[in-house]
Amino acid sequence: MPVQSLPVRDGSLHFRLLQQYLILLKKYPILTKSVTSGILSALGNLLSQYLEARKKAKHGGPVNEIDVAGATRYAIFGLIITGPVSHFFYQLMEVWMPTTDPFCIVKRLLLDRLIFAPGFLLLFYLVMNILEVISFLSEKYSLNILKKRISIQYNYVL
């Protein structure tokens, strides 16, 4: 027998923000996930830059300025690619492997890690290189250089 949830009236700001986020997630799932992914991607990039700069400063190394363009690239990737692709992939996985399926957790994990993740990683490097304004037609960069660069980055991570 399904239980109907009742809205809880809590005055805390955190709770109201969470409640509003969950409402938006139900009304506009792809848009909400995309915006969330873009924001979290940018914040993650900024945090990693900050921690790297702090580590370098601690050891007396030269500290680079925060690369806002890098954080912007991550935000764009999260907004345009990560949010929608992840949404549809996990929706399909729910259809292909329902929770009633024996070993569904193991199957989902294997599908995610062995098939989805390597392809998504390749897409990540491709889009990030394109967002770094590498032109296929310029004299300085050619398609072969782009392929080599992506191959090096992709193989390094794997």
UniProtKB/TrEMBL annotation:
Its main location: membrane. It is a multi-pass membrane protein. It is found in: Membrane. It comes from the Eukaryota. The keyword Membrane applies. Keywords: Membrane, Transmembrane, Transmembrane helix. The chain crosses the membrane at residues 74-93, 113-137. Belongs to the peroxisomal membrane protein PXMP2/4 family. This is Peroxisomal membrane protein 2.
